[in-house]
UniProtKB/TrEMBL annotation:
It comes from Streptomyces gottesmaniae. One of its GO terms (molecular function) is methyltransferase activity. Keywords: Methyltransferase, Transferase. This is DNA cytosine methyltransferase. InterPro entries: SAM-dependent_MTases_sf. One of its GO terms (biological process) is methylation.
């Protein structure tokens, strides 16, 4: 098991709620930007590096709103399950009759986030998820070893949209029986020339978990560090950056 990294927490940090938090890729980026982070995930995530509530994210958020406890937070990030609209589900899997029916949680998540009255972010991968693509981020923008395009809807605030950076080559791995080399690794699945766990950790910028499933589901922390700093710049507030 990878050794846990030291996390510095300070009372002066504005507090952020991280819904569908998985193992903390998004959370770590927000922490580095200057937030104190609390997570919520339905699965046990012992590698999550911050305080975390285990339970249904929608029910937890509804309870926070009803009780008024949501006022502890200044910002909410949500990464609802993406299988309903992701490119793999609606592309290859659908054409081959693979997979199963997935529930689209984006709309109910957005309704609750709007009810908080707080600024928020909804994250989804490329595909047919019905979110505004206010920001689209890519690993090449941050010098990472993955492409991993992710789209972000910004609720209640705005940020400048960065220009996309051209990719330097292919994602390493097999395609239709042929192996392609390149400067990026594929952060999903197993086999087919997929990277080792240490390669994934390096490519994603994630050191506190060595579980492949957690790494392949994560957002690189560089993405949310960028978003967190953009939020502070847009609102004229300051975080206590680590």
């Amino acid at each position: 098991m990878t050794q846990p990294i030291p996390i510095r927490r300070g009372a002066s940090r504005p507090r952020l709620l991280d819904l569908f938090s998985c193992a903390g890729g998004a959370a770590m980026g927000y922490h580095r930007a200057g937030f104190a982070v609390d997570g919520c995930d339905i699965a046990a995530r012992p590698n999550y590096p911050f305080p975390q509530h285990r339970g249904d994210a929608l029910a937890y958020l509804a309870d926070l709103i009803e009780s008024g406890e949501i006022r502890r937070y200044v910002f909410v990030h949500a990464s609802p399950p993406c299988q309903h609209g992701c490119a793999l589900t609606v592309g290859t899997n659908a054409s081959q009759g693979w997979g199963r029916t997935h529930v689209d949680l984006v709309a109910p998540v957005r309704d609750l986030l709007d009810a908080t009255g707080l600024p928020y972010v909804i994250e989804q991968p490329n595909g047919r998820a019905k979110i505004r693509k206010d920001l689209t981020l890519c690993g090449e923008m941050f010098g990472l070893g993955v492409i991993r395009h992710r789209n972000f809807e910004l609720g209640g605030w705005t940020a400048a949209r960065p220009a996309h950076v051209p990719h330097r080559g292919r994602v390493r791995g097999y395609r239709h029986g042929r192996f392609y080399d390149g400067p990026y690794v594929a952060a999903y699945g197993n086999g087919g020339g997929k990277p080792s766990v240490p390669e994934l950790q390096t490519a994603m910028g994630i050191t506190w978990t060595d579980l492949r499933e957690e790494l392949t589901e994560a957002i690189p922390p560089a993405y949310t560090e960028f978003i967190g700093r953009a939020y502070f710049a847009a609102t004229g507030t300051l975080g206590a950056a680590a």
